[in-house]
Write a structure and sequence with these properties.
heterodimer, A: 87 residues, mainly alpha, 4 helices, globular, B: 415 residues, alpha+beta, five-stranded mixed beta sheet, two-stranded antiparallel ribbon
């Protein structure tokens, strides 16, 4: 459970950011997203949702993301890792 | 300017240029049949609804899945969650709440009596307050809901509503980029309803329980947004148009005020008595006819179908224009003018058409009519309405039809 960003370790911060991205893209509460979740299990992954995830990731890392890496995203952790690697 | 911002103006133009006729239009490369005939709308929406599916993908994608956007089982379970409360609400309690918030609202409007326009936000605050108080037993001010955030979300959704699948361009991409932040803000605000200690009416209990049943994919916040969008925003828009019509027709305003003064001076200040004042109901019906707050509903043909003047093929996009249908010159002598003579339940009136028809009729119709008539009675009892401009309306679509820049109406103390 993530109650405040201040208490998070560095990895957890990227997990939280990944959940925030999915929260805004899938329109679900951060608290409803488990650490181990597959993105497709959280809601319908249509073209708009995928586009929003990409826009949010690119806003977070401040540049365009590698398209291959984007296509390989399937879990919350994948997004967190992508954010951490591009920090 | 985008098609979504111009759609209402376009529909009024088509209602004049092709009155009483259906036409096929091209929206960003997509063929759309605009239905302006009541008989064809009746066929599509009421008699043959299974031949069409609701085409509200944009609404669903931007505001979330809700009873407003879903079909089949997903719609049925959401409808069951809320419709009982919309059907069986306490009329007198709703009347009392609508009266109270209307009195507070008219006081706020009178404080800015030199303003040339009516602030849509004040009307929105009134309608949302009644809705939240009536169905949740909670004061809107006690929640964290910022109606402006919801309005912005609906604006972004409306901008997106005419983008064909797979044809997003940079403009829309830029607008879409605003969505996640707005959604996070809304989710944060609406998390109030998940807090322990918040009063749980049976209505909220049902929504929370459904939210916990993961298999149905009912999301509390999506239902709340749909509830506020459909229940508060449209009523606020209607009251804006009603104030404009009162100012545009001062004789009608005076006649209606006579009824309202008498009602509010009587010892029968209740819904049972107010609902018997036919002129007020007729006026609201006319406001809904002339300026339907939800001017369109969209459908998608699932199979071949025959309308009065065209054979539809599967895959055809259909837009039912309430503007076109309610301004059909075959149905009334001068559909462009306010007409207080006649029945509010006549064919293609605001009462009978503007809430849609058939199985997908607006679930909150009776509640909306009650609060609109009550608001009107309080407004007329306390204030007079004068035009600040004679300009023809410039329309603005934000999931409901608004007037660009606000309604040009002074709200003044009665002397």
């Amino acid at each position: 459970m993530y109650n405040s960003k201040e208490n998070l370790k560095i990895t957890d911060i990227y997990m939280y950011r990944a959940k925030e991205i999915l929260s805004g893209s899938l329109f679900i509460a951060v608290d409803s997203i488990p650490d181990e979740a597959h993105i497709s299990s959280l809601g319908e992954l249509d073209s708009l949702t995928f586009e929003l995830i990409v826009l949010e990731i690119e806003k977070n890392i401040g540049r365009e993301a590698d398209p291959i890496a984007l296509l390989e995203l399937s879990t919350v952790k994948d997004i967190a890792l992508l954010l951490e690697e591009n920090a | 300017m985008s098609l979504s911002s111009e759609i209402c103006t376009y529909l009024y133009e088509v209602a004049r240029s092709h009155n009483g006729k259906n036409i096929v239009a091209d929206f960003n490369g997509v063929s759309v049949l605009i239905v302006q005939r009541h008989d064809d709308a009746d066929h599509i929406l009421r008699l043959s609804p299974t031949k069409y599916r609701k085409n509200m993908a944009w609404f669903r994608q931007t505001l979330g899945a809700s009873r407003f956007s879903e079909e089949g089982y997903a719609w049925e379970i959401r409808r069951k969650l809320t419709q009982t409360y919309f059907n069986k609400f306490d009329r007198e309690k709703a009347f009392t709440l609508a009266s109270r918030y209307a009195n507070e609202t008219i006081s706020r409007l009178l404080e800015r009596s030199t303003s040339k326009t009516i602030d849509d936000n004040i009307l929105r605050d009134m309608t949302a307050s009644v809705l939240v108080d009536n169905f949740f037993g909670i004061k809107l001010d006690d929640t964290r809901i910022d109606l402006e955030t919801l309005a912005q979300l609906m604006k972004v959704g409306s901008d997106y509503s005419f983008v064909p699948m797979g044809k997003t361009n940079e403009l829309y991409r830029h607008r879409l980029a605003q969505l996640p932040d707005l959604r996070r803000q809304i989710l944060n605000q609406l998390s109030y309803f998940r807090q322990e200690g918040v009063r749980q009416t049976p209505f909220l209990q049902g929504l929370l329980a459904a939210d916990q049943r993961l298999e149905d994919r009912v999301v509390l916040e999506h239902e709340l947004i749909s509830f506020l969008a459909a229940g508060a925003e449209t009523s606020a828009a209607t009251m804006g148009w009603a104030c404009y019509l009162l100012a545009l027709y001062p004789d009608v305003q005076e006649e209606l005020r006579t009824h309202c003064l008498k009602f509010w001076q009587s010892d029968q200040q209740n819904w049972a008595a107010l609902s018997s004042l036919e002129p007020l109901a007729r006026f609201i019906s006319e406001a809904l006819r002339l300026f339907p707050p939800t001017p369109i509903v969209a459908r998608y043909a699932l199979e071949e179908d025959q309308l009065s003047d065209i054979t539809l093929q599967p895959g055809q996009n259909v837009m039912i224009s309430f503007i076109g249908i309610q301004h059909d010159e075959r149905l009334r002598a001068d559909p462009w003018a306010l007409n207080m003579n006649g029945s509010r339940t006549e064919k293609a009136s605001g009462d009978t058409m503007a809430f849609s028809i058939g199985p997908r009729i607006c679930g909150g119709k009776q509640f909306a009519l009650l609060e609109l008539i009550t608001f009107l009675s309080v407004f007329l009892n306390r204030a007079k309405f004068e035009l600040s401009s004679n300009e023809a309306p410039e329309f603005y679509w934000k999931s409901q039809m608004l007037r660009a820049g606000g309604q040009p109406v002074y709200v003044k103390e009665l002397t």
